[in-house]
């Protein structure tokens, strides 16, 4: 079966043999329990119908019971509403998460920070880099650190939309159709080599990303929260691929390139990873409910009116510059703002500064714009052009 | 490292100094160089300093002009005569130029004019070569100076002036070439990438030098063949009688009289028994501009005809004259000269008996000259004179004509003075007596001039003047009453020294000569305090009383005795009165100079004081309970830090407060860097946080940062930072820039229309 070859599930949050996680997550479980009747996955039931999704049973149970507020929007809302997290918590917890992830991925602090920013801003991340630089590892480590379910979907040309979203199957025993969840039902979904799948499949995925829910056979299934897609694109081996069109790329909040590690980081990696997989030693430092609370807290970060203007001017500059054929969309302004809030909170501030905008302009905008022919001929990178757009807008003085 | 503007500034100074030397053939007095060269250096240095501070070129040009004017005041004041201002000095210089041939004899006005020319050359060269960055045009001011000399004055300039000009141009071009060469290495990399070629630096440098050399050759080729303009009237003069252009002796006289330092001009011995008036020039023409030279035929030779109109034979007097360092084209001779043996080429006018040089170096002909003169004593008999009729000399068309436009007031006055006198000589004596009266004061204050205006002011208004006004007025009034007259210019008898007499510059004098039938030209002396009137002019009844008590005047009181007719006492009077004038004038000048110094110092301190005031205002403790006031306080502190960075020459990066705090603090001591980071966080919070009141002492932070900025800076940077802060100049340049001015004007206009 081709699907099983191309599609692997890696629901690994909460490693086996680490029971400490389960009790810690347990208290929140009852709260969700009653409000999640529509979607009550059980490991045995799931097992036969999920040739593509193969979570390790115990951990999946735990996360499903604890944090996947599936099926009911109300459930998700309840989780958020009950959070009483402050911005200080954001800084503290995110610092712990970063430290935890850094034990696995050496010397990639920038990429990790951007991933955290995107997660807190409820966005999705596009990773563009060659194989083997730790894209998957980043996603996995992040999932492990926040004790969430991670699904990996390997995109291939024959992947079907239902493989992503799920399918209703007739259950002989109950004589009813039963919804079998696709790969997207997880807190962190790693869409590997997303450009290899057909456009149809891609758009199914992107639709789910945007709506944060899946509709099938007249029913709507809410995706768990936190929910974050980390998609990767391989910039080489473009043969036979369907690169994401601009409209699709626009749905990703940020794009980063992992880049090769420095020599020291690579040596340290050899030393640390030589014996056993470091992921095995990694323990969760927080949980999904906390993350939801933190996401809620981040929205309280203050953005001065002058900075709103500034963000709009920066994005506007990408629309007017001659070096870009396509500038940033209004959606990109919004996402830049949200990312800035998130970064400010992680940095321990309750207000956004121009430095936040400067730090995030390239990751947030670069994948949405298209360089003009002249700029391409002049071998100007898009990062460069966005940098000059940023410099062309004066830093606002006063709010 | 030498800045590009410094190098070009140095070239500007060099070219200006060379231009100063180009002016050397204009004058016999090279002392102007002592002022002109420092001025060029000062102007150039000011330009360099201001450009290092990146001040707008328009401001630099204005600063140059201010410095130029202040400098001219500074050198002009000690040179100016009492009561004369800088413009008067300029006017005097222009007049001097128009009345003298090159090389002109020393004159304060001329000196100031030459210094001003050099200063203006420097300012304009600087503007062209650096200000508007057109070094190739930088030679124009110096070239203009050269061309004025070469073409304007129709004189040949020595060959080396063109070499100086060329050197100056080469200097500017070289500076430009080196500046360009410095830029090349930076662009070389790009050039190589773009064109794939490397032109060696030496080759390019060689190209620049070759271009400069070609330009120089062209320039020399164009200018050298200018026909050398010889003394174009010399040839004709040597052939005999002919027209000759003579300098105005009145102007020399005015200048010599007002020179602060007296110096000997000539000494003479004579067998006349008393001192002699030595006559040089005679001005027979009177018109609205005053007494002037007329063109008269010259006759070559040293044997003169008998004095016109003199019928009595007269005693022969022998005089030996020894002239010192005094240059003139007129030969000083006692009246009426018959023979002289001065070396050189001389010619005389047969009516005036004036002897002028016609030699090659005409204007300096008298210098170090020794000669013997034989003259006839013109002394008339008082009794004969008193009955003599007014005569009619051969040049009566000049000397006897009363101008049509002569002011009626002067005519009325002359007639009123003389109405009771029966004979012409008595009328003349009455005029002389009137002018020696107590209402007239000897003073060097009036401007030179014997025109109608000056005469009216002298006779009718202020009654102040010196010999030019006294002599001119008497001669004019004599004509009104029918006596032919002219004004002679020359020397008082001077002071007796041993066997002979010594005549100094202050003895220069003018007196009227009146023509009587059978007597000829007779000298009168209407100037009080300078000399006693000749015995023959005190005719008949008045003689004893007039001689005994010449009407007391201001000068008379300071003269020990005006009665004795001995020469020594005659000449002490003007000197003493001159000293009285001088002490007051010197005090006034010192006070003026001090005032000017205070003013300049005050003006120089203005930027620093205003900046200090701004700082005090900015660092007032901001309230920590009012959000808006707190924000304003933080902003002001931040602006102060930015300006301090500019003032002390530290770079101020652009960007957000946080990035500035990080980048700008790099070179600072740790404490200051820490304060900068803290302050930048305050600014960030105040600007972007929801409700951020500042905490901490802003003024203390700013002070720490300023202290840190001053560490490791030279005294010059600190001085400039304190007193000529760059931020202040920048703010000034912005406030005076066109868009701001236009914006303000538009706002004002709109508000006016609205109201």
Automatic annotation (TrEMBL), chain A:
Signal peptide: none annotated. Residues 1-65 are annotated as: Disordered. The keyword Membrane does not apply. SUPFAM superfamilies: P-loop containing nucleoside triphosphate hydrolases. The keyword Nucleotide-binding applies. This is MoxR-like ATPase. It holds the Pfam family AAA_3. CDD domains: AAA. Gene3D superfamilies: Magnesium chelatase subunit I, C-Terminal domain (1.10.8.80), P-loop containing nucleotide triphosphate hydrolases (3.40.50.300). Keywords: ATP-binding, Nucleotide-binding. Residues 1-11 have a biased composition (Polar residues). It comes from Raineyella antarctica. Residues 23-65 have a biased composition (Low complexity). GO terms for molecular function: ATP binding; ATP hydrolysis activity. Residues 317-385 form the ChlI/MoxR AAA lid domain. Residues 124-253 form the ATPase AAA-3 domain. Belongs to the MoxR family.
Automatic annotation (TrEMBL), chain B:
Residues 539-574 have a biased composition (Low complexity). Residues 373-397, 534-577 are annotated as: Disordered. One of its GO terms (molecular function) is peptidase activity. Residues 459-528 form the Transglutaminase-like domain. One of its GO terms (biological process) is proteolysis. Keywords: Hydrolase, Membrane, Protease, Transmembrane, Transmembrane helix. The chain crosses the membrane at residues 7-26, 32-50, 59-81, 105-129, 136-154, 160-181, 201-224, 586-610. Residues 373-389 have a biased composition (Polar residues). InterPro entries: Bact_TGase-like, Papain-like_cys_pep_sf, TgpA_N, Transglutaminase-like. This is Transglutaminase-like enzyme, putative cysteine protease. It comes from Raineyella antarctica.
